[in-house]
């Protein structure tokens, strides 16, 4: 904990077969490698809170089937892959509050018969037809997920999911909105709260508090202005080699990692006004 760790490679814990508790909270982790804990069958408590983790891969906890307490709160999570928690049947405590989660795959929490503490408040939940399953799930478990509220659409903002009816969760429009694929980390995809066309990712004014993870690799422009983003973590954009323009204006950014834009040779425009940035990275 509090060691400024920003990267952990798969295999680093493989020899710790008797490990029962692991605290990695308050570091600078942005990614969670798959199969990181595959040899840690005795692991019972895992604290990953207060990092910059952006996504939970499908096989993140594969092998660590005895985890009872899993803390993922206060990260930048936008994507939970389908089946990410499926192996965690012994789980008693799961905290996902204070992230940037907008949607969750159906039945993500159905394999946790011992769950007694569950927190999902303070996220960016989009209450459309894809999240309708969660309302009855919460009602059947009245002590779990207290204060879980909608963030969008505006007409439902602030409403408690457990108190909503199925017909309130709607998908509108003539696009493929009724058939949105769950977020996948195999290849970048358009964030569900944004619009994407002509290699431009438009996330303007969507109430984001963190930069979405696993964006389309071919994008040439990303518009993130007029949100509530507070920091730009290390390597936030470095994998998007075709980026020419990044607009982060009118956010609440006070921390900008030195390597946030590293390796972006095509980048010719960074728009950063309207923030609280004191030091700009070189390059």
Describe the structure.
Mean pLDDT is 89; it is low at 174-181. The chain has 1 helix and 14 strands. The strands form 4 sheets. A 5-stranded parallel sheet has the order 1-2-4-6-7, with no helix packed on it. A hairpin with a 2-residue loop joins β8 (195-197) and β9. The protein has 2 domains: 1-183, Ribonuclease Inhibitor (Leucine-rich repeat, LRR (right-handed beta-alpha superhelix), Alpha-Beta Horseshoe); 187-283, Ribonuclease Inhibitor (Leucine-rich repeat, LRR (right-handed beta-alpha superhelix)), CATH 3.80.10. By secondary structure, it is mostly beta strands. Residues 189-221 form the LRRNT domain. InterPro entries: Cys-rich_flank_reg_C, Leu-rich_rpt, Leu-rich_rpt_typical-subtyp, LRR_dom_sf, LRR_TM_domain-containing, LRRNT. Residues 123-172 form the LRRCT domain. Pfam families: LRR_8, LRRNT.
Topology:
Layout: E1 21-23, E2 45-47, E3 55-56, E4 69-71, E5 79-80, E6 93-95, E7 117-119, H1 134-139, E8 195-197, E9 200-202, E10 221-223, E11 231-232, E12 245-247, E13 255-256, E14 269-271
Parallel strand pairs: 1-2, 2-4, 3-5, 4-6, 6-7, 9-10, 10-12, 11-13, 12-14
Antiparallel strand pairs: 8-9
